[in-house]
Amino acid sequence: MVNFRVPGSIQFYLPGKTMTNEEQRYLLPTAFAKYSIQGAHIQYTEGPFGCYFQQEISDRDWTFGWINFFLTRSLQVHAAPTHPMVSLQVVLQGEIDIELGTYGPALLSAQQFNFIYTPPLPRSICSLRKGNYEIAYFSFSSSFLESFLELHPRFREIYDAQQAESGTADMLPAFSIPPMGIDILYKIRMINPEDTLGKFNIRRYIHDILALYFMALLQEKKTVSPYKEELENALHHVKEYIRKNYQSHIAIPKLSQLAGMNTTSLEKGFKQLYARTPREYLEFCRIQQAAWLLKNTQQQVKEITYAVGFTDPNYFSQVFRKHFNVTPSMYRKMEASAEKF
């Protein structure tokens, strides 16, 4: 296990074709000065899509970040942490469709807490429509997280995933953030971290935010019926089986047997819980691994086809295009030319 002594930071990447006439700066333009956070490290990016900027304040055990998007057209942006990261994220404006690594699709809704574990690879893919977005987030070192391990079993799972550098993303239940939580976020924005008690006060407010989240999590656990919990555990078992065996032939009757339910109930329940049918999730796992192999290895497309569980290279290319809007070969070229910022 690895003890991450410093919290992770989120990095953003754009496909090469998106970056035409794009400019990066480390100061905010005058037009956006009112969004400035005192003492924060700033990264500002603009291009034909509009602009976005990220501001971060870090201490030994935590990072506080704030991201604003001002988009004149739809944008797909890839995001990855600097190292395996557990973070609490709050979307304050807008809704974000995200392909969260191997976890699968998720919707980050406005005014909600989202507690997430993300490995550096595969990158998460955020799909943003034209409009404005505002996101606040916190990431934590291992030592900071240890004090919360007894609060909920699922929290220990994401902590253990970080420690083991798991390649599998995970997400705890999302809850509406109360007005008190929104107020705390904006209070943090106003603190100068260079003041004598600046970072001490930020840390105190972070504990308050975490307390609000875990109160909601514990309350939810009290209201979940034993039947619903048993059903979700069975579906989670099916999801994990698919994730670990995607390269093999997987038949739906086999999954029904694993879940202890008929095919109709399995597909309906799985889609309600994970926003995709078992077949769609299997396809997603295969395509995500294929994308990783295209980017990080020199294997031929035909070899990758079979390695991830497809039996027909032409069909593989069709499915890949459906997910990424480009062929596997073009995706490899785009990733090779993309610049990190």
Biggest sheet features: 9 strands, antiparallel
Radius of gyration: 21 Å
Any low-confidence stretches, pLDDT <50, length ≥5?
Answer: none
Mean pLDDT: 85
Give the SSE order as H and E letters.
EEEEEEEEEEEEHHEEHHHHHHHHH
Count the domains: 2
Category by helix and strand content: alpha+beta
Strand percentage lies at 15-25%
- CATH classification, class level of the largest domain: Mainly Beta
**Cα end-to-end separation:** 29 Å
By CATH, the topology of the largest domain is: Jelly Rolls
Shape: globular
Number of helices: 11
What is the annotated CATH architecture of the largest domain? Sandwich
In total, the number of strands is 14
Say which CATH homologous superfamily of the largest domain is assigned.
Jelly Rolls
Helix content: 40-55%
Keywords: DNA-binding, Transcription, Transcription regulation
GO molecular function, one term: sequence-specific DNA binding
Pfam family, one: HTH_18
Organism: Chitinophaga solisilvae
Question: Nutshell version of this structure?
Answer:
It is built from 11 helices and 14 strands. The protein has about 350 residues and is α+β, with helices and mostly antiparallel strands.
